[in-house]
């Protein structure tokens, strides 16, 4: 089993029980949005490779990450097909767009912040897989547990790359800025369930 302590120590909060219940009540939608998240994660990695050519360490890590995320995407699609879940268009959650809002517009700040946000999203995804796994059927639990190792590595890769991109400058303050915002997004009410949504709004 993957050691989640580094991720739990890193994130500013754990996923609330209310979200876990919401997810279990919306399993088909959870899988659909999970597939979308894997696709977006691969796209983010490819975008970094195109935008910041020359950083061989980053390009190697993002190439590997994109391949893994696309493989996960294929695995989620297979599970959906097996379970008769249609793949339709759904709107994205507010999570990623609002988490990216404080990203600086100048370089290398933009690069550093983008990598930090990538690390936070991977850490949260890993934490949610671990929170959900004990409550799922055997097939889905096994799949989610199998994702923990790669997601935990992706989180570490992003942060290592962010520290390298900062060229010796501390990024702790920037990390704290994004983690504080992320905590708000995770704990505040949401109207629509998504894999990275907050808690359900009270009726």
Sheet with most strands: strand arrangement: 1-2
* Global morphology: globular
Query: What is the first-to-last residue Cα distance?
Result: 38 Å
Our count of domains comes out at 1
Biggest β-sheet description: 2 strands, parallel
Strand content: under 5%
Tell me the total number of β-strands. 2
Name given to the CATH architecture: Up-down Bundle
CATH fold naming: Ferritin
CATH superfamily: Ferritin, core subunit, four-helix bundle
Q: How would you state the average pLDDT, rounded? A: 96
What is the C-level CATH assignment?
Mainly Alpha
Please characterize this protein's 3D structure.
The chain is 69% helix and 2% strand. With 203 residues, it is mostly helical. The chain has a single domain, classed as Up-down Bundle (Ferritin), CATH 1.20.1260. The chain has a two-stranded parallel sheet with strand order 1-2. The protein is globular and about 45 Å long. The model has no long low-confidence stretch (mean pLDDT 96).
